[in-house]
TrEMBL record:
Boundaries of every ABC transmembrane type-1 domain copy: 95-308
Low complexity biased stretches: 1-11
SUPFAM superfamilies per record: MalF N-terminal region-like, MetI-like
Name of this protein: Sugar ABC transporter permease
Membrane-related topology note: Multi-pass membrane protein
Length: 324
């Protein structure tokens, strides 16, 4: 009887290329892999260079020039900056108005967003509907149409004025009162609390229920649980919302433009920084001056953000640091 032997089949060659002496497929060269990555990143890199970096470079150059958008720019050095800080009282009014707006609007918006998030956390039915309903103002509030409706509500004889008059508070139209116009714009920002609310709600759902159970066993009430458990565990999310909303508040434009008719009135009470920048650049055709204002705003926002990050070390709690 003869015994037939079969030659073992050769393993199929891998698609990656020839095999190394040890039997492993050769890896593609590093430069080839990096080249493929840059091919996929090229649309973003091109867009960032053309639409962001190049306009920033042009704006920085224009900030040192006298440019009216009709004649070629002429180099004037630091004259725009010195005029801004020493010769323009309206500039400092715009700075004061913007800072006051940030101090009023951001804390109120975050407090309302956190309160609604805490209320929605305990809702069992219809949570998706309520979340969408409260988030809708964040999508609509930045439009000019909503800002015009808001002006009509707070105008003389508007809905708010009528309701307050029936309650015995005859204030008049808020948008026509220098002491109330800024508050009307701030309330529009507070009304757009949907985005930070959703982030707060996501953070609340990540807090372990065991912490609340342990606090309850120790005799802590709802307020004590909120102060000792919720706020420390939610502090990273609170810090994120604080930075994000502060940066957005410094750039507010549409509500102020709609309420004041683009002039910052009454009595410059709604003369926000970006509104005055728009007035200098596009109304007065001082584009060089407006470019200088834009760069000062960029540096100011960066400084405020750096201060927030610096001070966060004393009040932001990270669970990973506690485990070390």
């Amino acid at each position: 009887m003869s015994i037939t032997t079969r030659t073992p089949a050769r393993p199929a060659r891998l698609r990656d290329g020839p095999r190394a002496p040890g039997g492993r497929a050769k890896r593609r060269p590093r430069r080839e892999r990096e080249g493929a990555a840059w091919v996929f990143l090229s649309p973003w890199v091109l867009g960032a260079a053309v639409l962001t970096l190049l306009p920033m470079a042009v704006s920085l150059y224009l900030s040192f020039t006298d440019y009216d958008m009709f004649e070629p720019p002429s180099f004037v050095g630091l004259r725009n900056y010195t005029q801004m800080f020493t010769e323009d009282p309206r500039y400092w009014r715009s700075v004061t108005t913007t800072l006051l707006y940030v101090v009023i609007a951001v804390p109120l918006q975050l407090a309302l967003a956190l309160a609604v998030a805490l209320a929605l956390k305990s809702v069992r039915r219809g949570k998706g509907f309520y979340r969408s309903a409260f988030y809708a103002p964040s999508l609509l509030g930045a439009s000019m149409s909503i800002a015009l409706v808001w002006r009509a509500l707070f105008n003389d004889g508007g809905t708010v004025d009528d309701l307050l008059s029936r309650a015995g508070l005859d204030i008049g139209g808020w948008v026509n009162q220098p002491g109330w116009a800024l508050l009307a714009v701030a309330l529009l920002t507070v009304w757009q609390f949907g985005a930070p609310m959703v982030i707060f709600l996501a953070g609340l759902q990540q807090i372990p229920t065991e912490l609340y159970e342990a606090a309850s066993v120790d005799g802590a009430g709802r307020w004590r649980q909120f102060v000792s458990v919720t706020l420390p565990m939610l502090s990273p999310v609170l810090f994120f919302n604080l930075v994000l909303q502060t940066i957005q508040a410094f750039q507010v434009f549409t509500p102020a433009f709609a309420v004041s008719g683009g002039r910052g009135g009454p009595a410059d009470s709604t003369l926000f920084y970006t509104l005055y920048l728009y007035d200098r650049g596009f109304t007065a055709s001082h584009m060089g001056y407006a470019s200088a204002m834009a760069w000062v705003l960029l540096l100011a926002v960066a400084a405020v953000t750096a201060v927030l990050f610096r001070t966060s070390r004393s009040w932001v709690f990270y669970a990973a640091e506690e485990d070390r």
